[in-house]
Queue: 4 jobs
Job 1
Amino acid sequence: DFHLTGIAICYREGESNFLPIDQSEKLKSSLTGIKGILEDPRIQKVGYNLKATILALKKNGITLAGQLFDPMLAHYLIEPEASHDLSILCSQYLNYDLLSESSENTKERLCERADQVFQLRKKLQMELERRRHSKLMSDIEMPLVTVLANMEFEGVKIDQNFLNEYSKELEKDAKAAEASVYKQAGVKFNLASPKQ
């Protein structure tokens, strides 16, 4: 479950701001100013693990719009087998060590991360272009993040009665198959044993 406690925004390298979000009735008013920016399709948004951000915003009545870029996904396209942890990406591409997660100044830590994510976009975009993956990123991966976040937000409707009945049918079929195996073998044994 995603709880929105604040938003760190970076609009220029080295400049970021933190907007604390009040979880009470004032939540809607504390988001009013930023909502227009986040929903503006003309403004590109860059964020690490954007699916989680999209979900958290959606739960608060905000639909993230515009061209999206997620350094975590970009790095997955660049080095699929490597770690995509933000601290590793910052160290590898920006030669920068993030404040530790245990840092007591949450505002400073989140603003620092917003700034570094903003800076990572340029480096990773160049690497995507060099590897000819930029279209894959912009046309497939980033739109898919929004689709997956929307699916997760909406969920799926499950017919529990049908699934319960089907489960009983499958259990009956499994028992019949098990009995058939024992009959053909002429002896009972552990069917789950890989050695038999």
Job 2
Amino acid sequence: HHEELLQHNWLDLFVSQEQRAELAAILSDQGSLDDREIIMHDQQGHELVLQWTFAPFYEGPNLKYLIGFGYDITRLKKVEREITLFNEQLGKAYDDLKQAQQTLVESEKMASLGSLVAGVAHEINTPIGISVTASSYLQEQVADFKQHLEAKQLSRSYLNEFTQNLDESMQLLQGNLRRASELIASFKQVAVDQSS
């Protein structure tokens, strides 16, 4: 495999075809690349997201080669996508509650459910509040990770603590969003029962 690697450009080996031309053009034009997120594939074909910096190494006036530094940020990008998804779910849960409240207010038949709405709003406030806090904490953790990444201060103990914090926060977020979703579903059912 070593001989195979030596005979190929790193772009051909690891980078998706769509990105090759663009990256080759940047390196050719600018001679370097700073903190560029590049989608790559490992030997099993799994997609990875790496943040690359390429610095030129000269011998006299001539470019001898480029030195590349790559950081695997696949997990970080996955967490960012999950935070975005959770925030969308949180917004949907809130919109659903507002919609349910609006439906109750507009219908005379539903007037007797005012206290039920208040009760559900009170019940749902806790899991949504916890979810918002967990989501904010995750965003802070991601920002802190980016700072460590840019400062090239990624120790094994920091990464272990970071991933443990992410796992715990995700579990907290998922559990509370699930609880909020269950409360909204049961509230909708009660509202339907009351109106019929």
Job 3
Amino acid sequence: TVLNEQQLRVTFNESMDVGSIQAADFVISSGETVSSITLDDEFGTSVLINLATAFEKGVSLTLTVENLNDCAGNTVASNASTFFLGATPAANELVITEIMANPSPTQGLPEVEYLELYNTSSKILSTNGHSLSDASNTTTLPIADIQPGAYLLLVGSSNTDEFTGIDLAGVSSFPSLNTSGDSIAIANGTDLIFDV
């Protein structure tokens, strides 16, 4: 689990030999140095990994765990896991590519208003801390990560079960999209990311 840019939590499905756990047993693919480790519990089932420097946001990295022993003295097989923290999008890196303001008649789609976002960047982007606004309302976007070149559908929280097989995020207080025209914006605080 990624806690922040300098700290990860690794959880094991069995008790580990706490005497065998060392910082050198945790390797980050981008070369960040593990400065220290902290046991979350006395059985070594959860370990905090503290990095000397922050890893880059928006990039998928690999954490490899090796040379550990469980409490029975068995060497645990080397294990690699990917992790990332989505980057904050710059202007026009996250764009609205489709607006469904008038879902009736349905034409084979759910009868639900939605917005489709597209990640134009080469980074994994996060919606954390972003807002969605129309001419009269503003709401906070749920935390979601969008891969480079990928789409994310935004729908009202109560309508997420209407869609299957696509990446989506349920937005509480989803704005009612005006069919006669509306102004829609995505922002991070006062920084405008995209508007139509």
Job 4
Amino acid sequence: ITMKNVYLIDIDGVLADYAQAFCKYHNWLLYKKLKSTQLAKLPFNEHLKYDKKLYDCVKYLFRISGGEALSPNLIKESKEFIDKVKKRGDVVIIWTARPTEEFPNLKLQTKIWLRKNKIKYDKLFFVEKGFDKEMFLVNSNLLLKYCLKNKYKIIAVDDRRLSPILNKFIDEIYLFDRNYNKQLKGRRIKSLSQLL
């Protein structure tokens, strides 16, 4: 019997080009010509040399705007990867730390985006109140027990947030290699296809 893998895959930065969508909205709102490749590090406001109030205002407007602003480009290689692992019987859990408590429209927009892009998944987790260890344990306790009981290998992929928190719980953690997360340490990949 081949052991199944459970892939925990973040949306922004892994499935969706968040930086591109944010730059597009930012440029429209502020009449700028910023390119997503210019976002060299986190947090974005420090790199953009904006004071935190202006950046927070742009980010707030971006999140409540709906439509195009919340419909970033699909990273096609990531979808192809998910299609392949689902076909071989692996489990795909999509999760996101989008602040859906503060911005309830994000939950519906996220589901619409996943459906529109025909992303196949077994479970969708919205990690409320940002991402912290306690919330992870509450939201995923059953998932972890199920995976351990069935001897599934758990593999997580994120662009910045998960690695420091999940090391104790996850078999393998990969950091999506982006310009803006170069300062973070971890096993880095350029595309999900590297995991096949």
